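Quick note —
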Amino acid sequence: MKIKDISVCMASPDGDKAAYDFAQALASANNAHLSCAAFTVLPPMILGYGDGSAGEVYASIVQQTRDTMSGAWAKFEERLNTQDPPVEMRRIEAFPNRVEALSAMNARHADIVVVRAPGKSDEQPHADMLEGVLLGGGRPVLIVPEGWTGTTVGKRAMIAWDASREATRAMHDSLLLMQDDAKVCVTTVDAKPGDTGHGAGPAWDIGAHLARHVADVEVRNEDSIGRSTAEALMDVATSFDADLIVMGGYRHSRLQQAFLPGVTRTLLSEAKVPLLLSH
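Predicted structure written out below.
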């Protein structure tokens, strides 16, 4: 199966330019339909001070947000209308607590969803978009680092393999992005042989399986040697000159992820190349 339907989730035309540009290039390369989920995220409700003025202040802030984003999206849509093939624009207005659910709904109608990597600011909704697509939409999500200027991925892909269901799903989803002459590095970190995990040889079987789909596959069993798993994976990605990192996303619950330095969270904030996540 080839990619024929792509969605890009955006919170602003300027801040998410890298994600849009890549989604547009991916759609063009695959002769695929591209839709843009253009979010206007309204400010959360503010509590009053007892003088009755909070409601008026809040209504004014909401209207200002609507006016600002409506103008920004209108200008962006004008540019989209000049492109060939045309891009479908879907405007979505939501309070912060609805972004995740609406992102999930939008994702179910696409083969793959592109989102900008979440920033450090809590005001940016990209983390909610990402989790909505991944956990609620059931679709693979391609996370593009802010400021990334590449136009292709899948020529040199590193697959982070931990023998989990999520990693299996991500590996197979990544085949949608693989070039015909792709080179793939399947990487484990501190993996141990086991009957129900990696089997007799960590990554041997999955490497052989992947070699039936891709011509050039290598397996690296990496020792962390004092590094975190995420650091070890990023070191391999750099040495392999990967243009894509593939991994299963959020094996632990989101509550655990909030308090633990999980591999997913670290790579989302530190990876220099696009990251394909599946759940």
